[in-house]
Amino acid sequence: MSKTTRWAIVGLGNIAHSFVKYFDQPDGEIYAVCSRSQAKATAFATEHAIPKAYDNLDNLLADPLVDVVYVATPHNYHIDTIIPALEAGKHVLSEKAITMTSTDLTKATDLAAKKHLILAEAMTLYHMPLYQKLHDFAREHDLGPLKMVQASFGSYKELDPTNRFFNPALAGGALLDIGVYALAFVREFLTATPYITGTTMHRASTGVDESETISLRTAANELATVALTFRAKMPKQGIVAYEKGYFTINAYPRAAEALFTDSTGQTSVIQAGDSKQAMNYEIADMQQMIAGNLANTSLIKTADVMAVMTAARNQWDYRYPFEQ
User: Fold this and answer.
1) Which of 6, 230, 249, 299 stands the most exposed, by the fewest C-beta atoms within 10 Å?
2) Domains of the chain, with CATH numbers?
3) Which pTM does this prediction carry?
4) DSSP states of 158-209 as a string?
């Protein structure tokens, strides 16, 4: 009989409610929650029948029954939970963007390695069954070398300075909020670490990055482009072009279907998985990594995405107020 993996949630916003809603693991349970407000923690725990509710991170991390911490705070606070959790001997699954910079991520990954703990980013597309099926399809049908990947993500948001999306003090902006998805999609298919060949950014009146494009290349001469905006609706669409055909994937963060078009124009639909189970797939994989049954390969992709985002911000000379 396998050991029950006991989870603790830190940060009790909307994403935490979704995590509980879709959590369905026969060998896992949500054991504790933590908020800065005891009333909020207790209310959340009561609503979802969770045994323990804490208003203090140190007390949560001192609980020996907690195996893994799910970090669901705003991304500028992730590192403040990740490091103490790892120090306390807990595995960590953090929402994206996992950290603010590559420096912070390296600090966290080094500590996780030292402590022999699993650290991973809650990026659903790394765990959707469709993507493994597409890799297998490309190999089995001998599509040839990868040539080009394109990813767009546009979300129209009212320019409200009080909203976190446009608030520099809360690390607002398109790159860390939606760009992390587009770059993760690109990195899922590139066969080597990408580097930036060109990028441009437009700032909102509040100072955050409102729209940007990023061009990438790998040592294997694979090219990629990413287009992002907070001020216009664009499809979450990715195109992956091989020498002998291409995949088109819509709603790529949680995709369960892709369209393949070969070099003659013939098309076929490829399906795998269930979009509604996206969070549950990443939870299941996290438990498998903790059990030693699955390699933590997604962390390499996470690190490459963070490196691109850090390099882009450096090229834009873009710092948040708390980084000055």
Assistant:
1) 6
2) 5-122 (3.40.50.720), 125-323 (3.30.360.10)
3) 0.96
4) ---TTSGGG-GGGT-SHIIIIIHHHHHHHHHH-SS--EEEEEEEEE-TTSSE
